[in-house]
Specification:
The protein is mainly alpha-helical and 325 residues long. The protein is built from eight helices and two strands. A two-stranded antiparallel sheet has the order 1-2. Residues 1-52 have low confidence and may be disordered.
Length: 325
């Protein structure tokens, strides 16, 4: 047996912040999760580790480039054949749902009713176009029953957990996104979709900017320790400003409606960020997936948009009457 003196010494371990999955991996993400978060979090021994590609732990130039490319595709679709937006929503719902399937299975071994959720989710989105809320509700009811029946074949063990997770995915992604698809149906649908997107993007960008520059007071330390009240203020200012401009210039209505629409959409956008942070912390993962370069999974980009879509549909329906289809 070789002596201890002859053995090569192992170098001291240097752990990368992204190498250990879990709750502490939920770093600030300017592209979706933890936007505009507090920067003074105590991160333990990993806090002094050097060399992150960005404060968010992501490749920021790639993230920005991918975000701009996605925005360009959406803008071209809305300005040419606005109903193409429904196809974009449907494809995004499939990818986001599949990422959640994988995350829940990897993190907790949950067996979801994949086929009913995928098929029923698409039914909700596409039936929202000709039938509105009635189409969404009908497809939702059939899908819930389908999830029960699909899971029964595996027996009683874990039934409540698995079906509950399937309901979470179904209601969080395709159900909320179905309301986003309805935004484009009226004659002024392009303006409604753009208003929705601009307000949420302004919220994310304003929150990130003020949180990065001035964030010192954590807003939800047990959920997302880097989110700050200063970042929330930035989201409210930018989101409300964007809403006022969109209502006045795109929807040709009273600008001050934006003072109501903006803060409410900011609230739902921040809620989406926090919900995704909680799920990732609970599962002990950093990203939902690896679909988009620089972003992680698509859900890292969709989190604030998904939860804001039903609120945007409802607020614009109330404050900006629909004229024609």
């Amino acid at each position: 047996m070789p002596s201890s003196a002859s053995r090569p010494r192992r170098p001291a371990p240097t752990e990368s912040p992204a190498s250990t999955p879990g709750a502490d991996d939920d770093t600030g993400d300017p592209t979706g999760d933890d936007t505009g978060e507090h920067t003074d979090e105590t991160a333990g021994p990993d806090a002094d580790q050097p060399k992150r590609t960005s404060r968010a732990g992501r490749n920021l130039p790639v993230a920005i480039g991918v975000g701009l490319a996605m925005g360009a595709v959406i803008l071209v679709a809305l300005l040419t054949v606005r109903q193409a937006w429904i196809g974009i929503v449907a494809i995004s719902a499939v990818i986001g749902t599949w990422e959640l399937f994988g995350a829940l299975h990897r993190g907790a071994g949950i067996r979801l009713s994949r086929v009913p959720v995928l098929v029923g989710g698409q039914a909700m989105i596409w039936l929202a176009w000709p039938f509105g809320t009635e189409g969404i509700l009908g497809a939702l009811l059939v899908t819930v029953l389908g999830c029960f029946l699909w899971r029964m074949r595996l027996g009683a063990a874990g039934f409540v957990r698995d079906v509950g997770a399937s309901m979470l995915v179904l209601c969080w992604v395709p159900l909320c996104m179905a309301f986003g698809s309805m935004l484009v149906v009226p004659a002024d649908g392009t303006a409604r979709v753009l208003t929705f997107l601009i307000v949420v993007i302004c919220s994310d960008t304003g929150g990130y900017a003020l949180g990065a520059l001035f964030g010192k007071h954590p807003m939800a330390p047990k959920v997302s320790p880097k989110k700050s009240w200063e970042g929330l203020a930035g989201s409210l200012i930018a989101g409300s400003t964007g809403a006022c401009l969109c209502v006045a210039l795109l929807l040709d209505d009273r600008w001050w409606y934006g003072l109501i629409i903006g803060p409410l959409l900011v609230a739902t956008a921040v809620t989406g960020d926090l919900v995704e942070s909680l799920i990732k912390r609970d599962l002990g993962i950093k990203d939902m997936g690896h679909t988009i370069p620089g972003h992680g999974g698509l859900m890292e980009r969709l989190d604030s948009l998904v939860t804001s879509a039903p609120m945007a549909w409802l607020l614009l329906l109330v404050f900006v009457p629909v004229h024609g289809v």
